[in-house]
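FW: tagging you since you asked about this chain on Friday. Here's the raw sequence from the shared folder, copied in full. Didn't touch anything.
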Amino acid sequence: MSLEQPITAAQSQAALRWLGRIQQQPAQAEGAAFKRWLLESPAHRQAYVEAQALWRLSEAPAARLALEEREGLQQYLDAMRRPARKRPWRGLAVAACLVLALGCAAGWQPQFWLQDLRADYTSGAQVRQVTLADHSRLTLDAGTAVAVDFAQGERRVRLLRGAAFFEVTHTGEPFLVDAQGGEVRVLGTQFEVRGQGDGAQVIVRSGRVAVTAAKGQAARELTANQQLAYAGGVAGGTEAVDSDSRLAWRQGWLNYYQVPLAQVIEDLGRYYPGRILLLDGELGQRRVSGSFPVAEPLVALDSLGKVMGFSRQTVLGRLTVLR
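HL: got it, structure written out here
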């Protein structure tokens, strides 16, 4: 079917709303209101066809998305002191999941709402530069939140989520970074702390830091071009790294050597104002090497798709499906 005009964002949104209603109440598909809407414009019919196709592509990932968002959304409702009505999650319309995804793309992410209330600085889908009161500088990776407390003779930064690169000014007062139960004590340095599940990873670009995986444990000292990861209070081994390559996100690049495609897609997702869903788990395990610009995640995905044989479909500039 050829259309004189392209489908607009409003028409696509209307199609998704109709799809959600019909999935919950199938009888609406035979109703006069839906039929009138379909007949108003050929673009409406095409938008609905595309919404149905997206439904089929996204059914399983959308169900996972609903489960991921459920806990954070409930915290938000509780915090607002509104009565929460029990709703069955089984059979939740994919359109509702898409609304969650699009809402997250606009900057509201329920699972991060309480974190953002505690944070002094946050970043959205872009890298952000922050100068603290002591003139130390922080570079926040996309999707990062930190809280700062300069009191009682020490300077303390808490990494609530994401990753931050620190360039610390010497003042004579201790500078400490808390992340997932561990602590990084600055001994004069430039370094990154990146949250990873129930732990964190520390990479030193210059100088030294002392890393403690949990309270009461002995500190492990790192110097330039070394990294250490810890999780659940247990520290791994110290590894040598090319810190300039690993920290190139500060200059707008992600560099990889033989890592799973799923990891690359997850990282690119930090810089995309929406959701990226990979439908093929086996494809996600294939190894990737290369450098990709964070400012244009969809361009990076298109380049990867040509090499690895997958295609993408983007809806409303917010939800990208890879298959």
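FW: The longest strand covers residues 182-196.
HL: agreed, and The chain has nine helices and 18 strands.
FW: great, closing this out.
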